[in-house]
Design goal:
By secondary structure, the chain is mostly helical. It has helices spanning 2-9, 12-21, 28-35, 39-51, 70-73, 78-86, 92-104, 112-125; strands at 26-27, 55-60, 63-68. The chain starts with a helix and ends with a helix. The mean pLDDT is 88. One of its GO terms (molecular function) is DNA-binding transcription factor activity.
Length: 126
């Protein structure tokens, strides 16, 4: 239903997720790292995107990978239009740069859970 899609796209975090996924499939830990949000919050948003057929999730061993559901996204013209309009705005522009830096850097999906855990522990102590 169109109103459900509009509600889903009205949240900036969900738009940020879709914007990053427009580059291709990503692991949940990559999204968590790039967006700087907690896994529980990310899971909530991914569930809403999944229920509205905008993304697909696929579990491979201990990792969950997400990708844009092209059929769901193309059901209406406006979701793609919105994604093209936001790329020059903040925080989407910063997300794009973070994604490019991540792709060019040494980090991999395998080491991100450890890095994220260390960051959380450091924040708790500090």
């Amino acid at each position: 239903m169109i109103t459900d899609i509009l509600k889903t796209l009205s949240d900036p975090t969900r738009l940020r997720i879709l914007n990053l996924l427009s580059h291709g499939e990503m692991c949940v830990c990559e999204l968590e790292y790039l967006l700087g949000i907690k896994q529980s919050n990310l899971s909530k948003h991914l569930g809403i995107l999944d229920r509205n057929h905008l993304i697909r999730r696929n579990r491979v061993n201990k990792f969950v990978f997400c990708q844009i559901n092209e059929e769901g996204l193309h059901q209406y013209d406006f979701p793609r239009e919105i994604l093209s309009l936001i790329q020059c705005e903040e925080p989407f522009c910063t997300d794009e740069q973070n994604y490019r830096d991540y792709q060019a850097g040494p980090l991999t999906c395998d080491c991100l859970p450890i890095l994220l855990l260390e960051e959380r522990l450091t924040k708790k102590r500090g």
